[in-house]
Design brief:
Layout lengths: L3 H9 L10 H35 L2 H57 L4 H16 L4 E7 L5 E6 L13 E2 L4 H9 L3 E3 L10 H7 L3 E9 L2 E10 L7 H32 L1 H10 L1 H10 L4 E5 L2 E5 L1 H7 L18 H17 L3 E9 L5 E13 L2 E10 L1 H15 L9 H18 L3 E9 L1 H8 L1 H18 L5 E6 L2 E6 L4 H16 L2 E3 L2 E3 L2 E9 L6 H17 L4 E3 L2 H4 L3 H16 L2 E10 L5 E12 L3 E3 L1 H10 L3 H21 L6 E4 L10 H11 L7 E6 H6 L1 H13 L3 E7 L6 H4 L6 E4 L11 H16 L3 E5 L4 H9 L4 E3 L7 E2 H9 L6
Parallel strand pairs: 17-18, 20-22, 22-23, 23-24, 24-25, 25-26, 26-27
Antiparallel strand pairs: 1-2, 1-6, 2-3, 4-5, 5-6, 7-8, 7-11, 9-10, 10-11, 12-14, 12-17, 13-14, 15-16, 19-20, 19-27, 19-28, 20-21
Helix pairs in contact: 1-2, 2-3, 3-4, 3-7, 4-7, 7-9, 8-9, 14-15, 15-16
Length: about 850
Amino acid sequence: MLDCSTMIGWRQSRPNAQYGLPRDHAEQVFRLEKIAWLAVTLFVGTFMLIDFGIMQLVDGPAVRLTLRWLLIGGTCAALTFGLSRRTVSIFVQSMRSERAARNEAEAMADLVATVAAGHSIQDTLHLVVGAVPRLFGEHVRCAIALPQVDGTLRFVASNAVKGVPQPLKGFAFRPGEGFTGRAFSEGRLIRVDDARSNSDDRPDVGRALGTRALMVAPLIADQRTLGIISTWSLTPSVFREHDEHVLTAVARHAAVALLSAEARDAAYREAANKSAIIDRLGESEERYRRLVELCPDPITVHCDNSIVYANRAALEMAGVEQASDFIGKPIVDFIHSDSQRTVLERARRVIERGESNGPAELTLKRMDGELVQVEATTMPITFEGRAAIQAVMRDITVRKRAEAALAHQAMHDALTGLPNRVLLLDRLEQAIAISKRDGTTLSLLLMDLDRFKEVNDTLGHHAGDLLLQQVGLRLRGALRQADTIARLGGDEFAVILPNTDATGVITVVENLRRRLQAPYSVENQPVVVGASIGVAHSPEHGDEANTLMRRADVAMYFAKRNSVGFATYHVEQDRHSPDRLSMIGELQRAVEEGELVLHYQPKRDLRTHQLVGVEALVRWEHPLRGLLSPDQFIPVAEQAGLIDQLSRWVLRAALVQVNAWRRIGLEIPVAVNLSMRSFRDEQLPDKIRELLNVDETPAHLLMLEITESTLMVDPPRTLTILNRLRAMGIRVAIDDFGTGHSSLAYLKRLPVDEIKIDRTFIEDIATDETDRVIVRCTVDLGHSLGLRVVAEGVEDAVTYALLAELGCDEAQGFYVSPALRGRDLTSWLSAQPLAA
């Protein structure tokens, strides 16, 4: 009796040995075999049961009958087994054929995609030969040969397979020579089952490559034979008729790729030399059309602002199926309104001047309304006997979107979507400039959330992020569209309020605090936080972005420390600022490591309009805070005892610049400000003499400026030091005259050369009669004492002219020139006449 369960068990032990098919096909075959074996088992079992019943009833004849049934059952089992194997074999063969066809189709599709990708000629050829093993098997080698300048065919690409000799580069074929040359010259596919038995081949090539079976197909496109593609195997008779059709298709695609690459390269070369394009257009318009049609970049031609030609790439970019939907239409129909004026102006220049326009970024409209950003170059051509304009475009939509996304990321906070610190500072500088121009007040708010750390510690940082997002939304809803809200980092936010004075700020702050203190819902948890807000106004608290930011920050920390919720900046707060403490150490490093720089502001004679000197103004190029003005760090230097070191640096740097000007023939007097603390040092004249002696600098080129307050601290000591300085030839000026409390009796005894009227009396001189009276009296006083009078802060021509009428001697301010670095001012100085 057959043990069918054993057979079934054997079949079940081989679930994965299904003829090398994919798993899903293998499972289908396995189920079919199980069904076949089950049928056999049932068939045999049925006969065995019948036979068993007969054996119980009959003795001798029953045995014979049993044998017959067993014979019949065995026959049926054998037939069934054979049929099941045959069925499985046919099914397996079908699956293999289907898989081969699918692989072939996929390989051919990849090849088509490779051809359409627009690679260079060499890259395309290497990709083509690399795809051949997928079509014919890993045992098949492939190479492509192209005609050379000397008329021979040489291999330029091959699929390098391990173990296969690579002497291809040394072989050259003349047209008609060997199978390679014959396929090229005859323009047909040649297949050889065994190259060794065929005398037509080059025997040296066959020996070097071990070629047995061979197929060679020409690369034909546009009625031109561009080269050949050769496939060979080390085994004879491996290629069939179907393989010929496959190789023909591969050759056709490779030829198209070659022709496209040639056209593309030619188009690029011609685009780089537009005059050559025009010459070649006149010689061969048809050839040009083919090149343009195959060019992957959109190209259009328009006459009288109407489109007369477009290549396939241009039609696709415009979103039209037929050329008739595009040709003849006004060009402005496909140009966004933002770019229409630019396009028409460029077209006018091309027609009127006959010159090409360089690349310009434009926005176009597709037929479906979608916008496309392109980079376009336009040039004059002749089209069908008419003057026309050709535009060569490149789609940069993806690039521009990526650039916009990167720019947005660089300027905005990723969590809240609000502007970040970089964008805030940029907008703050713009707002300050507008505020100066319009004469309005600008307010800056810096706020820090109260109890935010508790939210992070209790609910986690994710909950803290959700809370920050809600805060950002509330801030947006509480402010005007013209206001700028930014997240500086952590739980700090900033708000720019243009055209808002101190009274208006109070209303805004109260509204913000009320909105921010309303309960939040974070992950179904009620959360309440507040905000400490610091305010700084421009120009009251500064007219530079960094200054305003720092002072608003000082006010914010004052509000937070004192739990007052809101504070406006005051100088008294700044003395206790942690930022001020850190600045002391940073300033020490700045002096030692060269972070300080000098800017120089010219002074002009109001009568002769000639340059009479410059004033040295120190700046701090802070690595994090940017360029800091003196009022941001000079008070710190005085309090920290760094002012002497800073003054020596300024004097040394100013004298170095004076001598640099002297070496190029410019003798420019320079004025340096000295603090009150410097005049407590009785060795000051000796120290200055040492600095003058370093480069033998003439003393009359140095002027020292001191304030009225400095004069009145210790008059006897100050008078002694000033007399010693004057004896050395150094000139002295009193700075900010009119703001201190100097005695006129004492003033007439001081060895000074000039007085400088403070800018507060100069700013409104054109409109304020009181200021004009003060300036006139000061000028008369100075002249009566034999002193020259200098006006500071001259910002416009009206003030400049009025000061001249009032008898003022010199003017200094933005109208004359802003303060510039020494290297930037040198050329300016070279062009200015010096006073005699």
